[in-house]
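sry for the spam today, last one i promise. struct tokens for design, 760 residues
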């Protein structure tokens, strides 16, 4: 907590700073670092917000104020939210934070710069868990005082009704969700909008761009039906253009806020983007997607021909269609009442309830069809209950459409006239894939055809060398499983624990061991359930002390000169047996529940004695160590060199953690950009260690794998297959290409062997 300043500039931020700057801030920092045109900005960090809560004494008061809240009770929810927000807005910001914000603002420009002030919740933008639109944004803020007020209002919006509701429903612990505030030069866009770098439902490489006149808020909030363009990344051509009738635009309103204007005359039906602009946006989208390794949802704006990228976050729903249902054949003959864009797949029938004001959402009952002018994040509590959603306005990429996809609620948006054509109480069927609303109930076949996840469809190859997947957050388990991977080669539990925002030591010191064990158990179980019958190797805790520092209990973490070489991995667990025991306790429960596919992997081992000691401790905790699968990471040259001794001590598998193995072999800090170009996983010394360890594992028939980033590089994968590795565990996005590389290499080896045989 002490170490992270109140203010961080965009240039200083990397994605690893997500805990301090939120998803939005981290993503902007990353984008700036790869040269995308991001307007200048600084972030008021989550730590500044925490300091504000602590120093004003609000921390305890706020949570106590809605501790017993039933979030399904609309009135109580609104009351609790209003109370909590008022506390934050009325509190006096500590002078040191105030002064730093003022100073940063002055540093941005000699004159008062017009800025956008955006909230960025720090669990935000995780794949599969979008907080889209849950917190506030203030546009067109000018002057230090207005800025300070906007920052405080952003903080307050963490306790808005929809935000509290959404977090409760998604299982986030409110005590641990923080908020950072991004202060960014406002781009007075002449035209703006959003883009999905790949198709949000099928995952195809089709970039979908929605754009309209004025600031992007009009598109994002669904106030306007935007133009829609489809850019094919394969042919690099615009393959579809849909020009909409654009009735309104949002523009800056003097020094304060924004205003909604009617668009008149030919601009209403004029095309917003040129082909050249679409191609450029498509290119930026691809750069962002390649960099993050996952399709992005990007906001952009254009001023005098210059494109700005305003924010980017992962699309949350590709391959995650648990509720998705395909349309029935019978729907073809049914009467279509109204059509729009299919925004969230699935089919549902129910009675129409038309909502003209978010305040009326109390009328909505479970199973209704919510019909409204525009989808709006304020309606999330109602959206959760209803069977489907239909709107007059809005596009595929408006925030509420994203949320409805994540909630798994079928949605059709942009119908233009649903609120006037449909009537209250009318029985209808909504097809969220085709974008149709039918009269009456349409029969849907009992067994729904499951949507084919994009990654699997792209790569139906079966390989002899197993291709597994790495998982870091349980929310990604479904997407990971959808790749068809042969198991999980690395489940890092650090992210699960970092998400709790309390160190293991805090749980122990506060007698909350059971909470820790349960959280760990529940998180791992999600992943195990996604991979039935396939091996899932869970790694025991490996977080360097500096990563724990910002969490509750982090003040007790030692200050280490070099945390990378410090108290982490198995060496720390062996010296903190209580911390180790709690992890083992959660594994024990899972084994007891029948998850025999759970294997345990020890990180940062440097001597077989450590493996033996860990195994002995597990035995004292009641684990039948000869029955369960235990293995090690090879991250330290010592463990590669001594692999035969490890094998003799009974490891069942070994997995190369090349991220560390490279840094420890070459003495190159993996996080230091000054020496980044010397960080070479294919350095002969690294390959030598890997090669000799693979040979030893083969000789003893012990599974040898890789779970470091190098395993997601097809070239490295080919080399590893040639040298006899048993399995490769790659990132979700890399599975298809790694599987292809592995298959090709295996075929080549077989062919070469056959040719040699023929020649003999
Ligand atoms: C590695 O070191 O390669 C590895 C997978 O572990 P981490 O990146 O978590 O250190
Ligand atoms: Mg490592």
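last one done:
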């Amino acid at each position: 907590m002490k170490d992270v300043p109140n203010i961080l500039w965009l240039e200083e931020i990397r994605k690893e700073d997500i805990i301090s700057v939120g998803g939005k801030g981290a993503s902007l920092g990353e984008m700036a670092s790869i040269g995308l045109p991001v307007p200048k900005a600084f972030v008021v960090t989550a730590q500044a917000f925490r300091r504000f809560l602590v120093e004003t004494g609000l921390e305890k008061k706020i949570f106590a104020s809605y501790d017993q809240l039933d979030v399904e009770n609309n009135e109580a929810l609104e009351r609790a939210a209003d109370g909590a927000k008022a506390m934050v807005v009325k509190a006096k910001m500590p002078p040191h934070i105030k002064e730093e914000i003022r100073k940063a603002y002055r540093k941005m420009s000699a004159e008062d710069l017009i800025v956008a002030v955006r909230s960025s919740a720090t669990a935000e933008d995780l794949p599969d868990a979008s907080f889209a639109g849950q917190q506030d944004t203030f546009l067109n803020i000018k002057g230090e005082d207005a800025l300070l007020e906007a920052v405080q209002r952003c903080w307050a919006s963490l306790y808005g009704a929809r935000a509290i509701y959404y977090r409760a429903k998604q299982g986030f612990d409110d005590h641990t969700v923080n908020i950072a505030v991004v202060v960014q030069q406002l781009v007075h866009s002449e035209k703006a909008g959003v883009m999905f770098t790949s198709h949000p439902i099928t995952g195809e490489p089709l970039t979908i761009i929605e754009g309209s006149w004025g600031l992007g808020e009009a598109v994002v909030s669904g106030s306007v039906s935007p133009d829609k363009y489809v850019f094919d990344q394969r042919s690099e051509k615009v393959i579809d253009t849909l020009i909409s009738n654009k009735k309104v635009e949002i523009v800056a309103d003097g020094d304060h806020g924004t205003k909604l204007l009617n668009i008149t005359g030919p601009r209403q039906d004029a095309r917003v983007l040129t082909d050249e602009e679409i191609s450029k946006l498509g290119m930026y989208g691809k750069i962002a997607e390649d960099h993050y390794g996952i399709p992005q949802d990007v906001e952009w704006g254009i001023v005098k021909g210059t494109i700005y990228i305003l924010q980017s976050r992962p699309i949350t729903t590709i391959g995650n269609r648990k509720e998705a249902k395909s349309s029935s054949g019978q729907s073809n003959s049914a009467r279509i009442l109204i059509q729009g864009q299919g925004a969230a797949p699935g089919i549902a029938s129910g009675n129409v309830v038309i909502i003209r004001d978010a305040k009326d959402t109390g009328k909505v009952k479970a199973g209704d069809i919510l019909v409204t002018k525009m989808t709006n994040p304020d309606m999330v509590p109602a959206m959760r209950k209803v069977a489907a959603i239909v709107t007059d306005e809005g596009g595929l990429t408006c925030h509420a459409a994203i949320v409805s996809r994540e909630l798994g609620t079928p949605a059709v948006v942009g119908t233009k006239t649903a609120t006037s054509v449909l009537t209250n109480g009318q029985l209808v069927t909504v097809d969220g894939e085709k974008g149709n609303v039918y009269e009456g109930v349409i029969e849907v076949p009992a067994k729904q055809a499951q949507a084919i996840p994009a990654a699997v469809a792209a790569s139906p190859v079966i390989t002899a060398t197993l291709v597994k997947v790495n998982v870091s957050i349980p929310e990604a388990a479904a997407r990971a499983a959808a790749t068809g991977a042969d198991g999980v080669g690395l489940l890092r539990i650090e992210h699960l624990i970092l998400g709790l925002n309390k160190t293991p030591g805090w749980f122990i010191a506060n007698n909350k061991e059971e909470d820790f064990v349960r959280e760990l158990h529940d998180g791992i179980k999600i992943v195990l359930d996604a991979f039935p019958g396939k091996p899932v190797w869970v790694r025991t805790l490996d977080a360097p002390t500096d990563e724990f520092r910002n969490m509750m209990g982090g003040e007790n973490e030692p200050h280490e000169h070099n945390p990378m070489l410090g108290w982490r991995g198995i060496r720390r667990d062996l010296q903190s047996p209580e911390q180790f025991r709690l992890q083992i306790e959660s594994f024990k429960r899972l084994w007891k529940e029948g998850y025999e596919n759970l294997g345990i992997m020890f990180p940062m081992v440097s001597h077989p004695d450590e493996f033996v000691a860990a195994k002995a401790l597990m035995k004292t905790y009641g684990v039948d160590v000869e029955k369960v699968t235990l293995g090690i990471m090879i991250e330290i040259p010592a463990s590669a060199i001594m692999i035969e001794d490890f094998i003799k001590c009974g490891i069942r598998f070994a997995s190369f953690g090349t991220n560390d193995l490279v840094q420890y072999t070459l003495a190159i800090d993996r996080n230091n950009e000054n020496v980044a170009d010397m960080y070479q996983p294919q350095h002969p010394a690294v390959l030598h260690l890997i090669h000799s360890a693979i040979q030893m594992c083969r000789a003893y028939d012990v599974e040898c794998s890789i779970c470091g980033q190098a395993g997601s590089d097809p070239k490295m994968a080919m080399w590893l297959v040639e040298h006899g590795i048993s399995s490769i565990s790659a990132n979700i996005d890399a599975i298809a290409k790694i599987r292809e590389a592995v298959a090709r290499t295996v075929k080549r080896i077989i062919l070469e062997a056959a040719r040699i045989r023929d020649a003999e």
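DSSP finds 27 helices and 29 strands in the chain. ok im logging off now
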